[in-house]
Amino acid sequence: MAVPPGVSEADFLDALAEMRSIVGDEWVFTEAEDLNTYRDFYSVLWGEPEERLASAAVAPSTVEEVQAVVRIANERRIPLYPISTGRNLGYGGPAPVYSGSVVLDLKRMNRILEVNESNASCLVEPGVTYFDMYRHLQQTGSKLWIDVPDPGWGSMVGNALDSGGGYTAAPYRGHWEAVCGIEVVLGDGEILRTGMGALPGAETWQQYRMGIGPCLDGLFRQSSLGVVTKMGFWLFPQPEAYLNCSIDFQRFEDIEPLVDLINELEYGNIFNGMPSITSPVLTRDTPMLMQEVPAPEVMNRLVRETGLPAWRASLVFYGPEKVIRAQWEYVQERFSSFEGVAFRENQFVKLPLTAEDLERIPKARFGIPSLDIFAVGSRGAGSFNPSDGHIWFSAIIPRTGKGYVEANRVMRRECARLGIPLFMFSPAVTCWTRSFVLFAAVPVYKDTDRNRALREKIHEIIRICAEHGWGEYRCPPAFQDAVMESYSFNDNILRRVNEKIKDALDPNGILSAGRYGIWPKHLRERREA
Ligand SMILES: Cc1cc2nc3c(=O)[nH]c(=O)nc-3n(C[C@H](O)[C@H](O)[C@H](O)COP(=O)(O)OP(=O)(O)OC[C@H]3O[C@@H](n4cnc5c(N)ncnc54)[C@H](O)[C@@H]3O)c2cc1C
After folding, report:
1. C-beta of residue 241 within 8 angstroms of C-beta of residue 345
2. Nearest C-alpha to atom 9 of ligand 1 is from which residue?
3. Is-above-0.70 flag for pTM?
4. What pLDDT digit, counting tens, does each position of 167-209 carry?
5. 157 lines ligand 1 (CB under 6 A)
6. Which of 344, 429, 435, 527 has the fewest CB neighbours in a 10 Å radius?
């Protein structure tokens, strides 16, 4: 049997016996075949001694059980790694960051505690998946939408805690930004409620985030400070209609003014859906993988030769039909001065959806969960060079035309130089309104030599991006130390302050050791960077 490092087998067995008495025998897992399900099947450390593996897993079903398990672990210094549904594929799956941790699996805590129609909010437990919430809203005839990430089987809580993103309107598609009110079990088993949740009897927990004094919610994002047991979210009131339009541009030189104008229009709420800026001419053979932006004259020649636009901006509007049509008209007026510009209305849909609509719409834009995305890179028919999974590289870059072109060139050139294969790449995903996210999917294989080489190359890409001022906002455990190291202002004071908070709130260092490069005092020398 695997035992957490630094814990005697006798202590571990006692602790597991106590945990069994709390959650029931069948909810403590120590058999190899059960623990196999807590491996990260997309791991870049697969099969190596450094692969992050759980020593056991415990699945409580109530907050009281979570508190009891945390107290048992705290007494015996047993490392715990809480997960909600553990489907964080591409960023670590269900596996702990610190090998030997006991996974605290919260997927049995899957109650939808409240949906508030008039305030457009909800309160959920960690095991509630996007499918669960969508079904609930449908069955109760709710007029509210959730915002979903591409894979619908994940949890609202786990996804938001890792700062996941979706595809509907701006206040909802940054999932952490849509959070309002958190309940968390701390390392000593105490319960904290943030914001208005701290005021007994307040009916505004899901309405006002800040409460009084310092706002503590951020302490629990990508953090090792607590086990989140409840989370509130703001939901999107179903709009009357949806309109998707695109604007084509013919010249390389348009990229800077077009990004500036899109920013102005989005910040001014002239459109509220998720925009995208792609390049039809640079994705003509590889739709998911943008090629390197060439020199202006080369790109302009390619545009003439292929007849494909240099850039395409797609905008989405949600709202009453007459309002969004007027907004689109205004957008066209503003873009009309661009040479050779072409406008197109791609899809107009009136809500609620009909069965026919369901067949033709992009589901995630309508808050409908699915697993369609797993067709990407799969072993199914037509797939090129399928891998065993992938990791995401996700860096925040400036939301400017210059930022877009530079990030594209640096990433494409450096990946080509280092021999990093990519199967999806965009320099400008817009989960958030004020920055772009450079997203790249890098295939991984269950092949140690290949993975070792890949890890070194990704470390180099992290360094190169940091030199340009681009930091990853989220990454798999194998790179969390390096990414935290790159946030190095003032001798890494960000990490140093986080470590002080860690030592104060979790002095025995039992929770989520190493998550995003924050290690408890007794393990700090393990830091890799
Ligand atoms: C093809 C593909 C497409 C994807 N597309 C998207 C996308 O569009 N958007 C997106 O955001 N992601 C995407 N992902 C990444 C990932 O699949 C999702 O983010 C998924 O929702 C995360 O899994 P989860 O919800 O089960 O979270 P979990 O795995 O449960 O949680 C993630 C991490 O948060 C912490 N945590 C979770 N719950 C708790 C808790 N209760 N208390 C304390 N800490 C906790 C843990 O450290 C855990 O490892 C994609 C992945 C793939 C493979």
Report:
1. no
2. 149
3. yes
4. 999 989 999 999 999 999 999 999 999 999 999 999 999 999 9
5. yes
6. 344
